[in-house]
Amino acid sequence: MEILNNLALGFSVALSPTTLMLAVIGCFLGTIIGALPGLGPSNGVAILIPLTFSLGLDATSALVLMTAVYYGAMYGGRISSILLNIPGDEPALMTTLDGYPMAKKGRAGEALVLSGVASFVGAFLATIGLLLLAPLLARVAFLFGPAEYFALYLLAFCTLGGMASNNQAKAAIAACIGLGIAMIGVDNNSGLPRLTFGNLHLMDGVDFLVAIVGLFAIAEVFFFIESHGKNTSLGMKLEKVKIPWSDIVATRWTMLRASAVGFVAGILPGAGASLGSFLAYMSEKSLAGEKAGFGTGVARGVAAPEAGNNAAAGGALVPMLTLGVPGSGTTAVLLALLMTLNITPGPTLFSDRPEVVWGLIASLLIANVVLLLMNVPLVKIFVRVLQVPPWVLLPGVTMISFVGIYSLSGSYFDLLLMVAFGVLGYFLRKLDVPTVPVILGILLGGNMEDALRRAMVLADGNWTYLFSSPIAIGLWIAAVAGFVAPMFLRNVLRKPQRITD
Amino acid sequence: MKKTYLSGLAVGAFLTIGFAVTAPVATAAECIAPANPGGGWDFTCRQIGKIMHDIGAVDKPVQVTNMAGGGGGLAFNHVVNERNTDADLIVAASSATATRLAQNAYAGRTAAEVRFVGAIGADPGVIVVAKDSPYKDLKSLIDAIKADPGSVSFAGGSAVGGFDHLKPLMILQRAGFTDITKVKYIGVDGGADAITQTIGGFTQVMTGDMSEIVGFLKSGDIRALAVLTEERVPGFDDIPTAKEQGFDVVAVNWRGLYVPKGVSDETFNAWADRLNKVAVSKEWQEAMKANGLAPFTKVGGDFQSYVDGVVAEVRQLSKDIGVIK
Questions:
Q1: Domain spans of chain A?
Q2: In terms of domains, do B232 and B188 share one?
Q3: Region B137-143: what's the mean pLDDT?
Q4: Angle at CA A109, nearest 5°, toward A107 and A110?
Q5: B1 in a structural domain
Q6: In whole angstroms, what is the distance from residue B148 CA to residue A404 CA?
């Protein structure tokens, strides 16, 4: 009953014509920001924060606008993943694996609608989870120390092998390249720079958005140039767009499971939405087995990562609100916004400022419904982008990439780095080495190393510390099983040769 | 044909919005936060920038640019090399800026290459344990470390050798414990994360700033053993200073600004004037109170010499404790 009262309070704060209008504007802007390669949710929200000040918005309105942008960007990231095989932001990475093949089969519209519904389910369930369990779930963060985090990241890497490629060795090489790139920058545990060659730009390491845009978007440009536009992935044929009711119904359990996995990953500080969508996809893939044909454009492969990353986006708000620890890059930006509004997130936020918390939760629910309504009918507009001839579309994508990456740090160095990643991506694709593990290596490698190094400092180099808690042991078992099981299952299942890109 | 035109229009709209989103506001002042959104420098830029506009000290909202890299070194370098005469530019600075300049972490750049305008608030350093910790005061903690350095580990929001790491080392140095390489410290992603690790029991002590612990103090999850100021902080009167417990260490993380070296004296004074206006504003007093900042106003000419003093002091300390050679 108390929850209903609180919700009523929240909606009384968040539900006014002005805030509703802000939610619609925020959702629209967010979707576009998410869809543009190089402009992810975190820099999108960061760029828009000054807007809330110049508009003179009060705390609640500013929050409504920014959370709408946040959720909108999480929705929008899938659009370019599916249509162009270029992830709009890092959590949308996994959506390329099945979303793009599905679009290639002429089912782009259906993939977009399905992923939109999956996004809605994930985000909706996560918001419910947030409102029911937030104070309780905050305690989960206290259970995760360096040893547990290390095991968690290890689990992610151990399940990498079976991904994206028929060749496990190539996936492993790709992951190692990513891990190597993740080493660049100041080493947190000694304060010394590594592999920076004295260059200040490399001191903080390589931003994964630079890597993503380079490996996907810029590499695509090189292929386009090489083939004179004949062999490009852009500009495919389109069938009529219809709502794939049967797929939506068939993937209902997938969405539920993926939401749960994503939500838990989101709650853990630092893990964030990318890990959420990754774990959701991989767990669904291993549940389905080889016969389900993940990677070839199946509905479950589209629904799982989208439900997962949107649920993780909601989950990431839990530690941000209750501990002041942002669970992802974007929640770090939202944290900045809250602090500018003189709201300090922390354990007492729920009791001190209920109108802010419940207003936020109510505005999340509103934004979610708006996004679903917006995304399904608008699909046709987004799909139409595909009909633009590649010679118009590609320079456009390239330009947006350059502008987006430049807005990250305002330095030309990142642009050079992005082009270098484009060259790397070109050669990797020529050699049939998957690029997704490279990104995951960059994304998670630094965190994994930090966790290991911290564990070793705390335990004076005693490696048994890594197995010192039930949670850590459980994660290790899952990791080893995830790595070894596919090797044996391979012979048992005798999979048919899959179609690869 | 018509379809292609429409599609072109759609792409055009995409591009236009892409630009509208990224283009800076023309002629407005710019504040560079040399870190990603969410941290102290970001807070400084956004809060001071907002108040400057709210109280009418500047005409247009201050545009905040996040330029993360090299612990602030990238932004410092950028200002010195490329924006040396930009009168519309301010940059967030703090004790961390001075610490890194002292440790020569900005690739040879020195404090004299920019002009420090002033500081208008300071985040007092704190030493914190979980509520069920056996350590009730600073002395029992220090004694435990002296007896067995391996039994206590610290967590803080800065990297090894950074300001949060230096705080316990300074205390230990005053207490006569010199084998500082034995002190266990892990640098995590921010103060709140350090507290989480400490409440979870993975580390025994959190070293950080007052602003980072306010919420947790209220919820009763932690106990502050000492605050590193001259006198107790108003509003947190039950937290004893390290000084009154016999460890004469003062470490505050001031929040302030610097401007490029090449600006005219008029510009410098104009910024100092604006900063002073913010310092006395009702809005800033509220912001300080909400974020656990203590009053600390040093604006104008004498601030540069204060920074020089801090740099010299930290450099000597870092040499003494072996962080730099």
A1: 2-493
A2: yes
A3: 95
A4: 65
A5: no
A6: 52
pLDDT per position as a tens digit, A139-190: 777 888 899 889 888 887 777 655 544 677 788 888 899 999 999 987 777 7
The pTM (predicted TM-score) of the whole model is 0.79
CATH number at residue B158: 3.40.190.10
Task: Label residue B155 left, alpha or beta by phi (over 0 means left) and psi (-120 to 50 means alpha).
Answer: beta
Q: How many domains does chain B have?
A: 2
Q: Which residues contact B274 (CB under 8 A, 6 or more apart)?
A: B52, B57, B58
Mean pLDDT of B190-216: 89
User: Residue B320 and residue A72: Cα distance in Å, rounded?
Assistant: 52
Distance CA(B243)–CA(A357), nearest Å, equals: 39
A336 in B contact zone (CB under 8 Å)? yes
Quick one: B134 and B118 in the same domain?
no
| B295 assigned to some structural domain | yes
B4 in a structural domain: no
B157 and B197 in one domain? yes
Please state, in angstroms and rounded to a whole number, the distance separating the CA atoms of residues A196 and A219: 24
Q: CB distance A388–B4 less than 8 Å?
A: yes
Asked if residue B211 belongs to a domain, the reply is yes
Residues B239 and B273 in one domain: no
CB B248 within 8 A of CB B221: no
Domain boundary among B245, B278, B310: B245
Partner residue opposite A342 with nearest CB, options B38, B184, B290: B290
Residue B159 is part of which domain span? 124-245
Which two tokens mark A52?
């809330």
How close is the nearest chain A Cα to the Cα of B268, in Å?
A: 25
Question: Does any CB of chain B come closer than 8 Å to the CB of residue A433?
Answer: no
Same domain, B118 and B257: yes
A253 Cα to chain B: minimum distance (Å): 34
In chain B, positions 168-197, which contact chain A (CB-CB < 8 Å)? 184-190, 192-193, 195-197
CATH number at residue B309: 3.40.190.150
**CA–CA separation, B58 vs A338, rounded Å?**
23
- With cut-offs at 50, 70 and 90, classify the pLDDT of residue A110: confident
| Single residue among B192, B213, B245 that ends a domain in this structure | B245
* Structure ipTM: 0.78
Residues of A in contact with B66 (CB under 8 A): 46, 409
Query: What confidence tens digit (pLDDT) does each residue in B10-27 have?
Result: 444 444 444 444 433 346
Could you tell me if A244 lies within 8 Å of chain B, comparing CB atoms?
no
Specify whether B143 is located in the same domain as B110.
no
In this structure, the answer to whether residues B168 and B274 fall within a common structural domain is no
> Are B83 and B181 found together in one domain?
no
A9 to chain B nearest CA, in Å? 23
Instruction: Give the rounded distance of the alpha carbon of B296 from its chain centre.
Output: 14
| Total residue length of chain B | 325
Which tens digits make up the pLDDT trace of A352-385? 777 778 888 888 888 889 898 887 777 777 777 6
Would the CB atoms of A191 and B68 count as touching at under 8 Å?
no
Residue to substitute from B52, B66, B82, B284, interface A, most A β-carbons within 10 A: B66
Chain B contacts in chain A segment 127-146 (CB below 8 A): 141-146
- Interface touch A200/B25, C-beta < 8 Å: no
